[in-house]
Prior knowledge:
By secondary structure, the chain is mostly beta strands. The protein contains one helix and four strands. Strands 1, 2, 3 and 4 form a four-stranded antiparallel beta sheet that branches.
Amino acid sequence: MKNGQCPKCGSRDVFSNTHRKFPAFHTIMLSSGNTSNRYASLDTYVCGSCGYVESYVAKREDLDYIKEEWASVELTCDRSAQHLSVNHLPSIPTDELKVEAN
């Protein structure tokens, strides 16, 4: 969606809050400590045609914190991944692909 086109419906009717005046209004909590909480601002994109939404962590330092402190999500192969395009799937080495000729 960052490129201005919705990946779900193909519409170019995409809107973003990246130029907002008050970035603290769209955040996620990164940590909850005894004395202070840490939040990250999100850049959000919304398709005006189908309503699909994508959000991205706005600052690199917050993304680095997430990579250090949050648990990694393991890749699973199930039916819920059927909506992904080929670009989102792990590649298979070409030596594992075999084509049989008739």
